[in-house]
Structures are given as structure tokens and as C-alpha cells.
Amino acid sequence: ISAGVSTRIKVFNMAGKNVLVVCTSNDKLGDTGKQTGWYLPEVAHPYEVFKKAGVKMTFASPNGGAAPMDEGSLEASKEDAECMAFVSAESTRNLTNNTEKMADIDASKFDAVFFAGGFGTMWDFPDDKNCIRVAEEVYKKGGVVSAVCHGPVALVNVKGPDGKYIVDGIEVTAFTNAEEDAVKCREIVPYTCEDKMIERGAKFKDGGVFQANVAVSGRVITGQNPPSARPCAEAVVAALSA
Known about the structure:
It contains nine helices and nine strands. With 242 residues, it is of the alpha/beta class. The protein has a seven-stranded mixed beta sheet, sandwiched between helices. A two-stranded parallel ribbon has the order 6-7. The longest helix has 13 residues, at 41-53. The protein is globular and about 45 Å long.
């Protein structure tokens, strides 16, 4: 550091902070016969961010038990050291193999909820009454509601204490229509995250195909795609420290 230049390093004290990480229970890509699930970097990268910040994590899924990983995400992440470490270590494998059931989750114990992405979410997150309940209760108590990639679909039916959708009128992001087209899945998913968010009144923020992009709207924090998982989690940590 050159003379006269000062640096400020922000240290987050996350002791006592609890985040609920939610993974999909669905392993079927619609009626295509293809396997899907939660997307590896969208769990592994936030896990590292939360761990390094000292945040306590609890993993859950709509059905509880083993939450299926998208097998394609393992192959796509083979050069990613954090992803490989996550799937290699028994301690982290156990987190997704032994998730708590959302119906059993007491939202009052959590300062934030983070809905991980993966195509599987499109068929179980949005209408799962306990995903909705937990998100609404965390939001109502002043906590952070966050999600990445397809994970934000969990928020499309979530309402605030005023009875309005929490995404109505705020800036959000999620896997875009252009990204669905890029992976040829727009005709497979029940609807796209972008279309449904706009239908709910959200101001949709498109950061470009597979470019890192995070939307921070108060206590609602969303990331667009796999490259956005780490900065999305970092934004959650920053919000928890505010």
C-alpha cells in the first residue's frame, strides 16, 4: 500500500446469525425424462460465503431428507474447487442429504432465508405452502429474503403484511428469458421467472446472459444465475450486518 493511502476493511460480525438454505426436492425436468435438482455452485458458493462470515446454516427442502443435486451441475463445475470440495466432504454432503422438512421449520429462528436455484425449483418452490410461509414469516419479522437463479421463483406467491406481493414495485432479478432460451428450456418450464416476476409487478433487472447480477431491494435480495450466487450471498451477509 503506497504512503498516504488508507484502506478500510469491513469485518462482519455474524455471531448468532442464522440462515435457512432451501434446496429443491424435485429431480424431474418437467416431463422430459431428464434429471435435475439444485444447482451445485448456487449452494456451494453461498455455503462458503456464509461459513467464512460465521453465519450458522440450516439446510431444508420441501420434502426433507435427501435433496437431489442436478447431475449436470457436477460436470459443469468440475474445475471449481469450492464446488468439488462441497461434494467431496462428508460434512457438506450430509447437509443436502439430510435436509429438514420445510413444514417443520420455525421461521422465528432465522435471520434470513436463501432459496438456492436449479431447474427443479420451478416445479416445487412457488406453490409450496411452507416455502411461502417461511418466506413471509422471515420477511414480517424484519429478516432477509433472498434467492438465486431459479430460486427466486419461491418468491412469486409470497406476500408482505400489507397483502401485496413482496416483489411488487421493487427491483428483482432471476434466471432470464434469454438464459432460458440459451439452454433451450423456455418451452419446458411451467413459466419463466422473468415473466412471472413482471406479472407480479416487479421491476426486473436483466444483467446480460450468464453475467453476474444481483438486485438488492431492502431486505429482498436476488441473484440472476450461477455466477451471481457468490455476490448474492455476500449481499445477504452485508444486509445482516446492517
